[in-house]
Write a structure and sequence with these properties.
The protein is built from four helices and 13 strands. It has helices spanning about 35-50, 70-75, 120-125, 160-170, and strands spanning about 1-5, 25, 55, 80, 85-90, 90-95, 100, 110-115, 135, 175, 185-190, 200, 215-220. The termini are close together.
């Protein structure tokens, strides 16, 4: 299975040359603050790509997707829209979630939650076991989550520790995420389970200056 994964294109998707593959995964933030017509336009572009299987999750910028699951699923069909739920593609078990922890409180964005509140444990405790692919918009703590301009005295790592701990527990084969543009790249961690490990991929296309310069990620699973 060749997976082609990208996120955080923020309106630049039509400029991209998307590599061929078996499964195309989009990890959220196709817009700056999407209205309904922008969702439809992006979905048309996404569905026209030649990949046999496609999965889309929203991100914190994708305003018009929040609270409109049925409409978004219909708009993206036959591509699969996941909102904190699972699917299966060619025998591979996949879970996708649009949520990310808020950098600001109160937050002006969407699909987010307070980083240290009870919502974090509730959300990430629902990630099922025996996954092949986990897709979240936000990163786990310490992996592809470091911002360049943290406020003085604040931790520059803005990912979610509960998400990291759940990933360490269920050990999906790969974890794909975005949200923090500066964190683009592949990561690994040491775990107690040496028979299985997780590869982590921050697949943001835009860099910290919102320029679409990062190569689209290709993963052979």
């Amino acid at each position: 299975m060749r997976i082609v994964a990208l996120s955080d294109t923020h309106g630049f998707h039509k400029r991209l040359q998307v590599p061929d593959g078996d499964l195309l995964i989009y990890g959220g933030d196709f817009s700056m603050r999407a209205k309904a017509h922008e969702v439809v336009e992006f979905a048309q572009w996404f569905k026209a790509l030649p990949h046999p299987h496609k999965i889309f999750i929203a991100g914190n910028h994708d305003m018009a997707c929040e609270g409109h699951d049925d409409w978004v699923k219909e708009t993206f069909a036959p591509a699969i829209y996941l909102n904190h739920e699972s699917c299966e593609v060619e025998g591979y078990r996949i879970f996708g979630s649009p949520f990310s922890s808020a950098i600001y409180d109160p937050s002006p964005w969407f699909f987010d939650y307070q980083r240290f509140g009870p919502r974090s444990q509730e959300l990430w405790g629902a990630i099922p076991e025996y996954l092949d692919v986990l897709i979240t918009h936000g990163p786990p703590y310490g992996l592809g989550d470091k911002v360049h301009e943290a406020h003085r005295g604040e931790d520059p790592h803005v990912g979610d520790l509960n998400l990291l701990n759940r990933v360490k527990s269920v050990l999906p084969r790969i974890h794909i995420f975005g949200h923090i543009h500066e964190g683009y790249g592949r990561y690994t961690i040491d775990t107690w389970n040496y028979t299985r490990t997780t590869l982590f991929y921050n697949v943001c296309v835009c860099d910290g200056n919102y320029k679409p310069v990062n190569p689209i990620t290709v993963i052979d699973l």
